[in-house]
Amino acid sequence: MAKQFPRLEAQHHSFIAKQHIFFTASAAATGHVNVSPRSTDMLRVVSDTAVLYLDRTGSSNETAAHMKADGRLTIMFCAVDGPPLIMRLYGRGRVIHRDSAEFAERLASLFDGQAPLGARQMVHLDFDLVQTSCGYGVPLFDYREERPQMDAWARAKGEDGIEAYWREKNQKSLDGLPTGLFETPAEAAE
């Protein structure tokens, strides 16, 4: 049976802290719906009604395009070990651009000033609904470790190679929506 809450409660914070993976779901008014898996090592709980994650380079930049076009964002956690549970955070997201003062402040306060090579932006979610459900249908898995390929790929590309990749692959969504990746902070605020 699903339960709804206006904010994270103590048991939700504890649940998030034990997870190794979360999923983001976003969409514009038309076009494709995007769902992406992400590692919780880049996720931070900002408050009982806000989370953010440091967004690393991917094959596209759908979430950023959807935040720019519409802003709706859902983050889902599901227990793959231990007691079953699914938790979704529903709200509105926004991108924090890497050249902004807010990015620098959040990086310093939440990530010890360290961004992995290839970190392209942060995604902030303000949510007004937390929903939990049983999770009985989620298979059991054992977590082993983070995959090393992302860091190896970024090191092999180097900063210039990553920027070239962003320019080629991360400026438009599958549906041709702009991601705003290379906007200045002033342009992004407009």
Task: List strands and helices in order, with pairings.
Blueprint: E1 3-5, H1 10-18, E2 21-27, E3 33-39, E4 43-47, E5 50-56, H2 62-69, E6 72-78, E7 86-97, H3 101-110, E8 119-133, H4 149-169, H5 185-189
Antiparallel strand pairs: 1-8, 2-3, 2-6, 4-5, 5-8, 6-7, 7-8
What does this structure look like?
The chain has 190 residues and is of the alpha+beta class. The chain contains 5 helices and 8 strands, in the order E-H-E-E-E-E-H-E-E-H-E-H-H. Strands 1, 2, 3, 4, 5, 6, 7 and 8 form an 8-stranded antiparallel sheet that branches. It is globular, with a radius of gyration of 17 Å. It starts with a strand and ends with a helix.
Shape, please?
A: globular
Structural class label: alpha+beta
- State the major sheet: 8 strands, antiparallel
Q: What is the H/E string?
A: EHEEEEHEEHEHH
Q: What are the segments in which pLDDT stays under 50 over at least 5 consecutive residues?
A: none
Q: What is the mean pLDDT?
A: 95
- Enumerate how many helices there are, as a single number: 5
Portion of residues within helices: 25-40%
Q: What percentage of amino acids are in beta strands? A: 25-35%
Distance, first to last CA:
42 Å
Radius of gyration: 17 Å
Quick one: how many beta strands? 8
